Amino acid sequence: MSPGGGDGNEAHPADRRPARRPRQETRASVRALALATRRRHALVARGRGGRGSGRTHPADRRAPGRAARARPRRRRRTRREAAVILLIDTDVVLDLLLDRAPHAAEAAELFSRVERGDAAGCVSAATVETVHRTAAEPLGAARARRIVKRLLSIVEVAPVTRAVLETAIEGRLPDFEREIVSEAAYRAGARAIVTRGAREYQGSRVPAYLPVEILGMLRARDALGG
Fold it and tell me: Is the pTM of this model over 0.90?
């Protein structure tokens, strides 16, 4: 007999508690797994936009503003965004930077019109590197960076991607560098390439014009009130 008067084979109540711990731990593990599974299903359902069940996740119903902020409103385009896009070749940029007469005056007027929004200007990525290298030699690296920063505040950059290079390799222009500029201009949506070497772009996907020709077109548009 045990001290409690029960069967000698019966365990003391205090001794029976540890025997229940594995079962309690198992139940706790099952509850934790079930909770994690519900959370995972909720995240998947939210990522699918409630597809399949036809229901919207409560978190999405509580905060409709968050979904609205995820899709920015369409805004009206500025004059620069609505203007014709011109890719300005490296030689025209250097005309302005180095004040090369007699071409500097035309380059200055062209950039002035781009800055005002009469046209949208862009340059190829290679032009930016050339401008920095050319300016750094006489002016120093710090001033060259300021010049590049100023240039980028006026124009956009037409990327030279792998696709641009692969297309340029198969291009029709004899000069590979010109073909890169032409393809970058095309992919940037440019309507014209402004360069003093217009003859070198014969056969380009984007037509090339001299600065004086582009300025003449812009002045004619001004006269018509465009």
Answer: no
